[in-house]
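Minutes, project check-in
Item: structure for the 163-residue chain
Input as provided by the requester:
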Amino acid sequence: MENQKNIKLRLRFERFSSKTAEEIKAGIERLRQSESENFKLNNAGNHIWLGIGMLRREFWSPTLHIELDKYEDGRTHVKGTFGPDPILWFVFLALHFVVGVLFVIFGIIAYSKWSLEQSPQFDLAVMFALVNAWFVLYFLARYNRKKGARQMDELLNLSEQLI
């Protein structure tokens, strides 16, 4: 995928399809029967989720969320977002939240110690370690996205069959 150098962690795309949303959803049922082992396909309303099948799924395997917006002229606006497994994404966001809260807490403690003319060195060291933890989380996400790039291309090709 040409967007691998993009700084965004969750790649996105937008397209217009000459098919209606109902035709695209009917295509899901056809694909579900032919690709049931390789891919996981779900839909609810105007939302479609494509994922890698259980036999081929890895820790870094991506999912593709597709949203369908209907236009009056019969076209369909298709918006796709790649992301990790929802549970993995939740853990990733929770870790970011914990690191952020700890950073603020230790910043407050460091400021309090500084204003009381005590040494805030330990608190500043922890804050520096937390900033490094943010970078580690970012690079882990980039690494996982790079490892899942081949599977992202497979999901994109599958979505092209639908659209």
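Outcome recorded: The CA atoms of residues 51 and 57 lie 9 Å apart.
No further action items on this chain.
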